[in-house]
Amino acid sequence: MDAFVNALVADKPVGRLRDELDMFGRLVGAWDFRWKWSGAEGNGEWLFSWILGGKGIQDVFIWPPRNERENRILEEGEYGTTIRMYNEWEHHWNIYYSNGGTGSVGIARPRGDDIVIDMEPKEDDAVRVRWMFTAITDTSFRWQNMVSNDAGFSFETRGELLATRTPANEA
């Protein structure tokens, strides 16, 4: 397993794309969050790492956090991963998300200091999904899951989280 992890995980971004990769690179590390989604609330953890020679970023999204999962059987929650690869030819990020059998694909672009991710709609589905990272600092960020029922003309927030960076020795 060490060989696989060593081949997957990278220490830093690839040098020639450093500026482009910084859009998500500033999220690399461990984060604790408070989550609100469709009437549910809870705490979780979100881990981001450089991958594949520093050309992409992968995360693991865990709600509720691992220390709460060890002591009980969970009927709800999320344990998913997103792979983000920068497309240097089209100047955007390709996004691939999966959570236990479901998956989504999207494209991420900057909007000022924010990150906007438009997910591809499911076949024959008029609903559009957008994820946004906003108010990003070295120690915190806000993430929103938004939906549009009018082909992307307007969006409504259906879930959000507020994240704070975890001290390095706790990650």
Report on the architecture of this protein.
The protein is mainly β and 171 residues long. 11% of the residues lie in helices and 52% in strands. The chain is built from three helices and ten strands. It has a ten-stranded antiparallel barrel with strand order 1-2-3-4-5-6-7-8-9-10. Strand 4 (78-87) and strand 5 form a beta hairpin. The protein starts with a helix and ends in a 6-residue tail after the last strand.
Characteristics of this structure?
single chain, 171 residues, mainly beta, ten-stranded antiparallel barrel, 3 helices, 10 strands, 11% helix, globular
Short synopsis of the structure:
This protein is mainly β. Helix content is 11%, strand content 52%.
Distance between the termini: 20 Å
Bulk shape: globular
How many individual β-strands? 10
Radius of gyration: 16 Å
**Series of H and E elements:** HHEEEHEEEEEEE
Continuous helix count: 3
Q: Largest beta sheet: what is the strand line-up?
A: 1-2-3-4-5-6-7-8-9-10
Which oligomerization state do the chains in this entry correspond to? single chain
**Average pLDDT rating:** 90
Spans with pLDDT under 50 lasting ≥5 residues?
Answer: none
The proportion of residues in beta strands is over 45%
Largest sheet: 10 strands, antiparallel, barrel
